[in-house]
Design a protein that fits this description.
The complex is a heterotrimer of chains A (235), B (208) and C (229). Chain A is mainly beta and 235 residues long. Chain A is built from one helix and 18 strands. Chain A is 5% helix and 55% strand. In chain A, strand 17 and strand 18 form a beta hairpin. Chain B is built from ten helices and one strand, in the order H-H-H-H-H-H-H-H-H-E-H. Chain B is globular and about 45 Å long. Chain C is an alpha/beta fold and 229 residues long. Chain C has a single domain, classed as 3-Layer(aba) Sandwich (Rossmann fold), CATH 3.40.50.300. Chain C is 36% helix and 15% strand. Chain C has ten helices and seven strands. Chain C has a seven-stranded parallel beta sheet with strand order 3-2-4-1-5-6-7, sandwiched between helices. In chain C, helix 3 links the parallel strand 2 and strand 3. The radius of gyration of chain C is 18 Å and the shape is globular. The chains are: A mainly beta (235), B mainly alpha (208), C alpha/beta (229). Chains in contact: A-B, B-C. Chains A and B meet through strand 13, strand 14, strand 17 and strand 18 of A and helix 3, helix 4, strand 1 and helix 10 of B.
């Protein structure tokens, strides 16, 4: 199944954000749940192997957009050939974008690919969070490959691909965690390096990228929260 | 041109590599590496992440024009968010430029940014030595495991024959990483964490 | 060598006997012989005369650098500690990159620098500095190691520009014969100087400081033209 979500956020009268374009089809519906907040609502099981989701977000100067989802997504294997499910988010951010969907659970024998490519304007502010759990309770972990590329003014600020799960070389014993969470922030919140037991925060120009991993997702998100506190701004 | 490649990848080339453990010193301190099997796993994850990135960057830098080298240096930074790993890479880049300028004189050295990432210096060294991008990638991929392997051998007093054997058995994987297209962005947050904890220590043998 | 071999095609420059910039003095020797104490003494004695800095090559910790900070009245920005990757020997002889980085960092930080002491990590009698790193080198042994040390030789004892036999005050306690040490050293050193000192009795290291002054006078001012003895 192919899914396309398109949203444009624009500064409207009185400085409030308006959303002149909100389109969704395929496996997602979009609900506006706040002045500048959207929730993605899955309308089908999955994603399944072979499914492709493209999300295009444009946040114009002076506008804010906050994207959430209503429930964890459970990536399931394809019925036929072993194809990954792919979710690709392209964001053009001159205003403020806050992207924090619910966790992605990657079922056994499943490959899920998540990509975020963000092009920031000079005053663009981006906060993007990923939460991943490999395998449902009691089953083998699936495989998740997440790429984040953030560019500002033509200059790449961050470009990383994290590959987790059976067969991924950076997921070899003794450090092959089932749960992973990561948040990248670029704006005007400079922070130095910080380290935790299985967590690390690294500085970026005007921001940071923080990552935590471990056996249980709630502990991992807790470890991440200690590195990213005070809490992120919400739109 | 094989002899130039052997020289470039030789651990005895005085470019400062022997003072860097590629994260192994901290991996040992953290209990992640303690025997040949865990060392092999560590080398594989390093090869397929920072090794693959370095191979892609080195190949792209081999014969690149000055503008491209500046862009590649930025791409290297974007793929190396850890300040400790950036510093280690640039320190080794500086060391390789120092010996490379003497070993393979070429105007290409002047095209490099100040204190370039190590992979870029490798690419330029390969070009100056008459080698091809794939040779630069091979050197980068090989060095991403040979340095940490030697460091582990010293730190754990491991059997050098065992370390040589497990490094040799990675040959096919090293070749595969060196053959990769483009510049991968493969990251390992564990290596980032180890590097930052290591950099904050006062009691360490290795610079990284 | 092929008949048309032109040596200039293979050698990129005459061997540098004297680097530009400050005079670089290597201080090597076995563990515990008093290298760091000598470095501290030289800093105290010569610090007012010369613009100087120190590079330390501790095998494991920054202990030597910390010792110098406490004992040499040398500010932090004049001391650089180098990590040697478990091989202090390699870092001063086979791959001197990290030490060159440290020297260059000190030079850029202190443009008027006249003297850099490069202290090796404690090693054994075979350790010596590459002349790609230092202009002259001092090898420090001590009486407590036994009066056989000079006779045993090794590159440090035989070839160093200055051999310092430290802790002469301990000679009676350890049954070492200073005369034997002097005679054996002279026999293997081909006329190069040897100084018998006790840093405990003379914490200024006056004799060694005089030798360093002479090196600065002879080699420092003349720049790259001066050749090594």
């Amino acid at each position: 199944m192919r899914t396309l979500v398109e949203v444009v956020a624009r500064r409207g009268p009185g400085g409030h954000t308006v959303l002149p374009v909100v389109r969704a089809g395929g496996q997602y519906a979009v609900r506006r749940t706040g002045p500048a907040t959207l929730h993605l609502v899955a309308t089908a099981f999955g994603p399944l192997g072979g499914d492709e989701v493209a999300v295009r977000l444009v946040v114009e100067e002076g506008a804010r957009l906050c994207v959430r989802s209503v429930a964890a997504a459970v990536a399931l294997p394809s019925r036929g050939a072993a194809r990954p499910s792919v979710q690709r988010i392209e964001a053009t951010v001159a205003g403020v974008l806050d992207l924090a969907p619910e966790p992605t659970v990657v079922a056994a024998r499943t490959r899920h690919v998540a990509e975020l490519e963000a092009e920031l304007g000079p005053d663009g502010v981006l906060t993007a969070a990923d939460q991943v759990l490999l395998g449902r309770r009691g089953e083998e972990p699936g495989r998740w490959t997440g790429t984040t590329r953030v560019v500002r003014g033509g200059r790449p600020l961050l470009h990383t691909t994290v590959d987790l799960g059976p067969g991924a070389p950076a997921w070899l014993p003794p450090v092959g965690p089932r749960a992973y969470a990561s948040t990248v922030h670029v704006g005007s919140d400079d922070r130095p390096v910080a380290t935790g037991a299985d967590a690390v925060r690294l500085p970026l120009p005007g921001g940071w990228t923080a990552t935590a991993w471990g056996a249980e997702l709630h502990r991992v998100t807790g470890a991440l929260a200690t590195l990213t506190a005070p809490e992120r701004e919400t739109a | 041109m094989t002899a130039a490649l052997l020289t470039l990848a030789d651990s005895r080339l005085p470019a400062g590599g022997h003072t860097h453990s590629g994260g192994v010193e901290q991996a040992i301190a953290a209990g992640v590496v303690h025997d040949p099997a865990t060392l092999s796993a560590f080398l594989r994850r390093r090869l397929h992440t920072s090794g693959a990135v370095a191979a892609g960057l080195a190949a792209a830098a081999c014969g690149a024009d000055p503008t491209t080298l500046v862009r590649l240096d930025q791409e290297a930074d974007a793929r190396t968010p850890s300040p400790a790993l950036r510093a280690a890479s640039r320190q080794q880049g500086r060391g390789l430029v120092r010996v490379g300028r003497r070993a393979w004189p070429s105007p290409a050295w002047d095209d490099l940014p100040e204190r370039p990432h190590h992979a870029l210096a490798l690419g330029v060294a390969a070009h100056a030595g008459g080698l091809l991008p794939r040779d630069a990638a091979a050197a980068a991929a090989y060095l991403s495991v040979s340095g940490p392997a030697t460091a582990a051998q010293r730190l754990l007093a491991m059997d050098p024959l065992a370390v040589a054997a497990l490094t040799a058995r990675l040959a096919a994987e090293i070749d595969a990483v060196a053959a990769v297209d483009g510049v991968p962005a493969a990251a390992d947050p564990l290596l980032d964490l180890l590097a930052e904890v290591h950099a904050a220590r006062k009691d360490r043998f290795f610079a990284s | 060598m092929p008949p048309d071999h032109n040596v200039d095609d293979y050698v990129d420059a005459p061997a540098p006997h004297r680097h530009g910039g400050p005079l670089r003095v290597g201080l090597g020797g076995p563990v515990g012989s008093g290298k760091t104490a000598l470095a501290a003494a030289l800093c105290r004695t010569l610090g007012a005369e010369y613009d100087l800095a120190v590079v330390t090559n501790d095998i494991y910790t920054t202990e030597d650098a910390d010792f110098l900070r406490r004992n040499a009245v040398l500010p932090d920005d004049r001391i650089e500690a180098v990590q040697t990757g478990c091989c202090p020997h390699t870092a001063i002889r086979d791959d001197i990159t990290a030490n060159l980085d440290a020297v260059e960092l000190l030079e850029s930080r202190h443009p008027g620098l006249e003297l850099v002491l490069v202290e090796s990590g404690g090693d054994n009698l075979t350790a010596s500095f590459s002349y790609g790193l230092v202009d002259v080198q001092v090898f420090v042994v001590d009486v407590a190691g036994g009066d056989k040390v000079p006779r045993k030789g090794g590159p440090g004892v035989t070839a160093a520009d200055l051999l310092v036999v430290n802790k002469t005050d301990l000679a009676p306690l350890v049954g070492a014969d200073l005369g034997v040490m002097r005679r054996d050293a002279d026999a293997v050193r081909g006329g190069r100087p040897t100084l018998l000192v006790s840093l405990r009795e003379d914490p200024t290291a006056a004799a060694v400081a005089d030798w360093v002054r002479e090196q600065v006078r002879v080699r420092g001012a003349a720049g790259a033209d001066t050749t090594r003895a």
